[in-house]
Amino acid sequence: MTACFDSLEAAGDAVSAIIACRLVPATMEMMDRNVLGIVEAYIHAGLPTDATAMLIVETDGYQESLDAQTEEIVAILRERQGVTCAWPAPTPSASSFGTGVKARPAPWRASARPANPADIAVPARSWPR
What HEC string does the chain produce? Predict the structure, then answer.
């Protein structure tokens, strides 16, 4: 699922709220407007390049708990002003989207300005209690 935000702070607050609720998505990634533009130029998946920030959240697990977890995450995203929430079905464009996001070197090379992409992992011991 994805959610667009009008500010980086709102997107960051949504990430913090998800973690504070002890929800553990399989993937949670935030992209700002610059990154959205770079990735969209590379994969042409129709990304919202006018959004200030976009969160990508993927859940995984047993179906019995997955629906409840997804509903809770969606509620948090909406509470934190996530707009244009989408829950795409697996499609070729969704697959290319994942490929474009994961294969960062080519989009960064295509960028007109230098960038230093970084994935940041927060150890579980540092999560809010």
Answer: CEEEECCHHHHHHHHHHHHHCCCCCCEEEEEEHHHHHHHHHHHCCCCCCCCCEEEEEECCCCHHHHHHHHHHHHHHHHHCCCEEEECCCCCHHHHHHHHHHHCCHHHHHHCCCCCCCCCCCCCHHHCCC
